[in-house]
């Protein structure tokens, strides 16, 4: 079952030649989800070989331009390529007002429904469901209202063992009750325990996106047990005071969140353009949390089944 994240943009407010503004694409069996849409996102989608037609939901963390200025171009491209399926965009309040007048300047109206859902997270809560996925928003601490997002698979029922079905001649109509946790009682009155008839389903996988935010220890509780954590690391820790002043984090602080959340893996991103490379970010974070990778544009992270259960 597909569950993977492609880094479309890993830089902060000012893009560089090889690091674009913020955007991630989560691919799943149900649909693709775009998280943030900075300038150049649709070009990065093309470079990644990702089709825009499968995007079923867009999540915007906050209303700073480097996180949503790519939306008008992307929406126009979706219209020109024949999209008719409705599209939902979740963001803090104000995005509709910022985009509507610009889209009205276009010659043609969008041929698909565009739903704006405004949500300023104050606690962790479910904001969307898509087939086998649910999306939760939680508050970050930046200079304006900012959402973090947690995307996770829904729990699946245990898998029925085909050989056991044949062995005990279990009828099809009995399978739903077994999947729901029940035992099977044969025509002879023999009780076959649920555990003998099923194998546990894989633990749901999860991905959390935390950009932009100042460090605050409580954040780890929102993403507890997440398989893959993306956390901004705009600065190295020698600039911790500047990071706090601007509502950002350091690589060291991102690692603290990952460690305290017992995350599976940490990806650092949203780097300041002052850094020509980000190897030092990776080294700094690994001193606290070894399973850390500094984001590179167009890297694709496949999230495997791990048996971990959290968040």
Automatic annotation (TrEMBL):
Keyword list, A-Z: Endonuclease, Hydrolase, Metal-binding, Nuclease, tRNA processing, Zinc
The Metallo-beta-lactamase domain, residue ranges: 205-271
A GO molecular function held by the record: 3'-tRNA processing endoribonuclease activity
Catalytic activity: Endonucleolytic cleavage of RNA, removing extra 3' nucleotides from tRNA precursor, generating 3' termini of tRNAs. A 3'-hydroxy group is left at the tRNA terminus and a 5'-phosphoryl group is left at the trailer molecule
Active site: 66
Binding site for Zn(2+) 1: 62, 64, 142, 212
Keyword Transmembrane helix on entry: no
UniProt entry tagged with the keyword Methyltransferase: no
Cofactor binding note from Swiss-Prot or TrEMBL: Binds 2 Zn(2+) ions.
Protein residues bound to Zn(2+) 2: 66-67, 212, 270
EC numbers, comma separated: 3.1.26.11
Cofactor dependency: Zn(2+)
Family from the record: Belongs to the RNase Z family.
Subunit structure and binding partners: Homodimer.
Function: Zinc phosphodiesterase, which displays some tRNA 3'-processing endonuclease activity. Probably involved in tRNA maturation, by removing a 3'-trailer from precursor tRNA.
Protein name as catalogued: Ribonuclease Z
